[in-house]
């Protein structure tokens, strides 16, 4: 019987050792799981930070692209607007010659006069459709941005445009030829 008791004690000790071992294994498993959870939480935080950075980068890139598109559209519009500037400037001399031809004709009822006047008006219409506008300046204050003073005479009001010697023109708000004017002193 002592031997049975000894065996029982051994078995009990083994069971206790097994339980202790199981408890240690469970504790180790819990610690491992907690460490994995902590690691995963840290990874999640890092990934959330990366997602936020990517969102910010995407938003900034999109804003830069929109600004780029607007800038390119404006440059394209300016290019098409002012691409014709040279030819329009050269056509102004033709328009001036039409006006001189009409001014030199004493009788404005002839068919020739009326034909030349119609051609001049047609040319003006085409140029106006493409953004050309005459600078109105008669009896206006002198402005060096729009006027080129070639004569000064005594007048009632100083710096007032008294006579237009050559018309001035703007192409889409840009002065392409200032008006040559006579100004009062």
TrEMBL record:
Described by its record, this protein's role is as follows: Participates actively in the response to hyperosmotic and heat shock by preventing the aggregation of stress-denatured proteins, in association with DnaK and GrpE. It is the nucleotide exchange factor for DnaK and may function as a thermosensor. Unfolded proteins bind initially to DnaJ; upon interaction with the DnaJ-bound protein, DnaK hydrolyzes its bound ATP, resulting in the formation of a stable complex. GrpE releases ADP from DnaK; ATP binding to DnaK triggers the release of the substrate protein, thus completing the reaction cycle.
A biological process from GO: protein folding
Gene name for this UniProt entry: grpE
Q: What PROSITE patterns does this protein map onto?
A: GRPE
Q: Which residues form the signal peptide?
A: none
Q: How does it assemble?
A: Homodimer.
One GO cellular component, as annotated: cytoplasm
CDD domains in the record: GrpE
| Stretches the record annotates as Disordered | 1-30
Report the sequence similarity comment from the record: Belongs to the GrpE family.
Q: Which GO terms describe its molecular function?
A: adenyl-nucleotide exchange factor activity; protein homodimerization activity; protein-folding chaperone binding; unfolded protein binding
**Where does this protein come from, organism-wise?**
Peptoanaerobacter stomatis
InterPro entries assigned: GrpE, GrpE_CC, GrpE_head
The parts of the chain that form a coiled coil are: none
Cellular location(s) = Cytoplasm
Q: Name one Pfam family in it.
A: GrpE
Record's protein name = Protein GrpE
Report keywords, A-Z: Chaperone, Cytoplasm, Stress response
Write out the biased-composition intervals (Acidic residues). 10-19
Highest taxon above the source species:
Bacteria
């Amino acid at each position: 019987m002592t031997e049975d008791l000894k065996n029982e004690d051994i078995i009990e000790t083994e069971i206790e050792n097994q339980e202790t071992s199981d408890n240690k294994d469970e504790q180790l498993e819990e610690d491992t799981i907690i460490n994995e959870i902590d690691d995963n939480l840290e990874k999640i935080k890092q990934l959330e930070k990366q997602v936020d950075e990517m969102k910010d980068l995407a938003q900034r890139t999109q804003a830069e692209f929109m600004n780029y598109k607007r800038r390119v559209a404006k440059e394209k519009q300016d290019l098409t607007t002012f691409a014709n500037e040279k030819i329009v400037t050269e056509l102004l001399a033709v328009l001036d010659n039409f006006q001189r031809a009409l001014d030199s004709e004493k009788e404005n009822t002839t068919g020739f006069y009326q034909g030349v006047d119609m051609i001049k008006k047609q040319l003006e219409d085409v140029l106006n459709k493409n953004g050309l506008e005459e600078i109105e300046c008669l009896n206006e204050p002198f402005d060096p941005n729009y006027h080129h003073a070639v004569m000064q005479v005594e007048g009632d009001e100083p710096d007032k445009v008294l006579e237009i010697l050559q018309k001035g023109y703007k192409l889409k708000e840009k002065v392409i030829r200032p008006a040559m004017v006579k100004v009062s002193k």
